[in-house]
Give the backbone structure.
Amino acid sequence: QVQLVESGGGLVQAGGSLRLSCAASGFTFSNYAMAWFRQAPGKEREFVAFISSAGGSTNYADFAKGRFTISRDNAKNTVYLQMNSLKSEDTAVYYCNARRFSTDYWGQGTQVTVSS
């Protein structure tokens, strides 16, 4: 069955870094664009970053530009989100998303908490 399993979240001080990973299985990972979303308490889920299926194209939310980097390793069926210069407002549950045409898969999320 399809699985997206996020890891790498945790508690970090403001200014610190975290690297999130999302391991995919149950589908042809290299055919899917991947993205990260996040949801803070009391807020709607929002887009963070996108990477195309081959990794040649990326896109970021304004708040992520210059601080976050999305990457993927199709040999390992894994997508990453490197987050630097973290701020308290980055505190949220981060979700991995796989998308191809009308097919959409989501992970269970990983908590990121940034203390100020």
User: Anything to note?
Assistant: Residues 32 and 101 are 9 Å apart (CA to CA). The mean pLDDT is 97.
